[in-house]
């Protein structure tokens, strides 16, 4: 298996890896606890300042420390000052006084202090127990109490208003609200903190530019999106966080625990990414990568981790055999077989030939759409749309007035014309826009649906963009003709789908198959657009692993109510989305057509989301299907594995500070608008639990041998 995190051994469970490489050991934590308590006791005994309390933050205080990367923030609430102005003026004296006092006070204790350094807002030093010699970082932050415990929300609103008005005091207020920041992280369950530790460990060993606080908020954001569970499988959550990092430049994260985030997002001093401090709406925990905002290294490292995580998954769709690969399943159950497609092609070509020979109409061309025309047909669910471009009418008004007669004429003509051909036809009926019928080859009992749609040519091929804009303007003004124009634009919709590579169409087929079997409630066109949206987000590759792409689309479906998808191939979406509310999935060729199934579900998307989340659970690793399918293999050493092993050997044990309580940078010019959050989506975390499966099977075989 691939080494998913630096230092993870072949066959090692995630739990054992956390104990061996990531979590600080109990003895170290106990020692740190004793040292911190001693320092806190000494702080309370300062001869000049009256101390109300000392709040423990940082990675040790919040419970997110990583082995060899531990620190504590001591928020010292001083009673001597009532106003923030007084604190600001006296802060240098306070810090100097405590620096001298602590260096003298520890001489009679079993602890040592070194490397004291005075900063603008803090006293920084290292401390350790004399007996074990384990040093860790301490930030001492003098603050005052600005929050009324009987009305926390109201007090915070007053503080935020002052922070906005008194820029010179903003950083001092920021330190005073850090108590809420600490409590926000402290209260998450230990399982979520293990994820934080794991990503902080990865961040240190990969030398990423994310702060510890940023990682804490990224993990908590995903944890909250999943309903804030106390107990959960770690592997899927890990993948979702890594997926978020892989698109870091687009991240927009805010929390509403202490303030209404919408009131502050519009005031941000830079555009996404932003990860707002839950206790301080003026602090963006996302790293600022210079003027050009180059987050490529962070995203590249995230994608590298995703690739390592996504090699194994429990592939479970209705009718899928245990251990069956997606490729074999697609061939066996999903893709129409070649002989059926060839038969359909012959039948369709025959009908197209007959259409061109209609005695009453001049036919410019017949465009083949639907699942057979676009190449997205699923076995047992195939159809074709025949867009018949008629030359007899010059404008949409003429087409609308004559549509009923055109459809009736084709109905009579085709019933008579096919009698001389080796095909069969069964008319289903007429709609205001289509003639609907079924076709099959006389030699095979394979029927499929056909929609014949008479249209006219409304686009000048020499200036497609200008023609389309004129059509959109008319659709906006001529409501009576909007649906007729819509059918005339279907050629561009078909072209949009046809040009995607076959591998993308396989993902579309698989999710359409799932949609049919699970009665999800999505239209085929909606699924096609969701898949293409995710594919484009991944830079439109011709070749890719199916599993991660499938997972990302299903993740989108599981949060369908929040989905907002547009394309800019033929128009500028911003001109048409201002009055829309999520979910919406705009037709790439027709900005007035929302492919989201609003009418079908009557505004209740819970069924769609529930089906999506159920499939997510099946796709995630560690399920019974995967465990049963695992075979024992010797590990292979790849170039990536070797590189990670080498890096792990030379990885330094440097301490990296938890900088969650940070100085707010100077304001820059410009303001960002309200950006849409990344729908994020995520993918499969197979490898870690595949390792667990291998470990379990190996253990069981060893026990059998010993018997």
From TrEMBL:
Residues 159-288, 470-601 form the 2'-5'-oligoadenylate synthetase domain. Gene3D superfamilies: 2'-5'-oligoadenylate synthetase 1, domain 2, Beta Polymerase, domain 2. GO terms for cellular component: cytosol; membrane; nucleoplasm. Keywords: Membrane, Nucleotidyltransferase, Transferase, Transmembrane, Transmembrane helix. The keyword Manganese does not apply. Belongs to the 2-5A synthase family. This is 2'-5'-oligoadenylate synthetase. The lineage of its organism: Eukaryota, Metazoa, Spiralia, Lophotrochozoa, Mollusca.
């Amino acid at each position: 298996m691939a080494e998913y995190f630096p230092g993870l051994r072949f066959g090692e469970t995630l739990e054992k890896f956390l104990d061996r490489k990531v979590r600080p050991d109990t003895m170290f934590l106990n020692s740190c606890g004793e040292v911190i308590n001693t320092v806190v006791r000494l702080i309370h005994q300062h001869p000049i300042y009256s101390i109300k309390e000392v709040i423990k933050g940082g990675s040790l205080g919040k419970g997110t420390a990583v082995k060899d990367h531990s620190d504590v923030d001591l928020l010292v609430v001083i009673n001597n000052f009532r106003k923030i102005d007084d604190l600001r003026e006296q802060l240098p004296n306070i810090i100097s006084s405590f620096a001298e006092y602590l260096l003298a006070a520890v001489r009679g204790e079993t602890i040592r202090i070194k490397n004291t350094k005075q900063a603008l807002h803090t006293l920084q030093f290292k401390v350790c127990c004399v007996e074990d010699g384990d040093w860790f970082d301490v930030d001492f932050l003098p603050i005052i109490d600005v929050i009324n415990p009987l009305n926390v929300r109201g007090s915070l609103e007053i503080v935020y208003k002052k922070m906005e008005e008194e820029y010179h005091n903003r950083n001092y207020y920021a330190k005073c609200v850090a108590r809420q920041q600490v409590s926000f992280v402290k209260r998450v369950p230990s399982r979520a903190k293990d994820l934080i530790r794991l990503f902080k460990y990865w961040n240190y060993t990969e030398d990423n530019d994310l702060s510890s606080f940023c990682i804490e908020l990224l993990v908590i954001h995903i944890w909250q999106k999943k309903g804030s569970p106390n107990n959960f499988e770690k592997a899927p959550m890990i993948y979702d966080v890594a997926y978020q990092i892989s698109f870091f430049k687009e991240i927009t994260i805010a929390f509403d625990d202490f303030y209404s985030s919408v009131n502050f997002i519009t005031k941000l001093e830079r555009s996404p990414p932003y990860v707002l401090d839950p206790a301080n709406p003026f602090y963006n925990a996302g790293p600022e990568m210079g003027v050009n905002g180059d987050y490529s290294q962070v995203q590249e490292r995230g994608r590298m981790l995703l690739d390592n995580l996504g090699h194994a998954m429990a592939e479970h769709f209705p009718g899928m055999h245990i251990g069956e690969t997606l490729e074999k399943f697609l061939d066996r159950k999903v893709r129409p077989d070649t002989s059926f497609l060839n038969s359909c092609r012959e039948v369709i070509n025959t009908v197209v030939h007959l259409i061109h020979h209609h005695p009453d109409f001049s036919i410019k061309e017949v465009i083949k759409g639907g699942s057979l025309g676009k190449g997205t047909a699923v076995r047992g669910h195939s159809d074709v749309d025949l867009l018949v471009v008629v030359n007899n009418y010059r404008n949409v008004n003429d087409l609308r007035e004559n549509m009923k007669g055109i459809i009736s004429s084709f109905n009579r003509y085709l019933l008579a014309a096919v009698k001389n051909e080796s095909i069969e036809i069964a008319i289903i009926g007429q709609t205001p826009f289509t003639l609907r019928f079924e076709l099959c080859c006389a030699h095979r009992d394979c029927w499929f649906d056909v929609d014949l749609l008479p249209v006219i040519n409304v686009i000048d091929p020499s200036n497609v963009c200008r023609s389309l804009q004129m059509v959109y303007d008319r659709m906006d003004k001529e409501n009576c003709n909007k649906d007729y124009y819509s059918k005339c634009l279907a050629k561009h919709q078909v072209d949009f789908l046809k040009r995607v590579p076959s591998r993308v169409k396989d993902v579309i087929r698989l999710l359409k198959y799932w949609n049919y079997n699970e009665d999800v409630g999505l239209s085929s066109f909606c699924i096609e657009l969701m898949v293409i949206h995710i594919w484009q987000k991944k830079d439109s590759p011709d070749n890719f692993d199916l599993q991660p792409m499938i997972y990302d689309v299903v993740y989108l479906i599981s949060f369908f109510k929040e989905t907002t998808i547009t394309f800019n191939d033929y128009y500028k979406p911003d001109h048409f989305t201002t009055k829309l509310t999520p979910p919406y999935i705009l037709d790439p060729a027709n900005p007035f057509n929302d492919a989201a199934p609003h009418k079908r579900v009557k505004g209740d998307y819970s069924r769609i989301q529930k089906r999506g989340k159920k499939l997510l659970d099946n796709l995630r690793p560690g399920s019974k299907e995967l465990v049963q399918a695992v075979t024992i293999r010797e590990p292979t050493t790849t170039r990536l594995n070797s590189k990670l092993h080498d890096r792990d050997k030379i990885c330094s044990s440097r301490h990296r500070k938890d900088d969650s309580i940070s100085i707010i940078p100077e304001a820059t010019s410009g303001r960002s608008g309200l950006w849409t959050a990344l729908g994020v989506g995520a993918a499969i975390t197979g490898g870690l639990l595949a390792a667990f499966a291998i470990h379990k099977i190996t253990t069981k075989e060893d026990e059998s041998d010993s018997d």
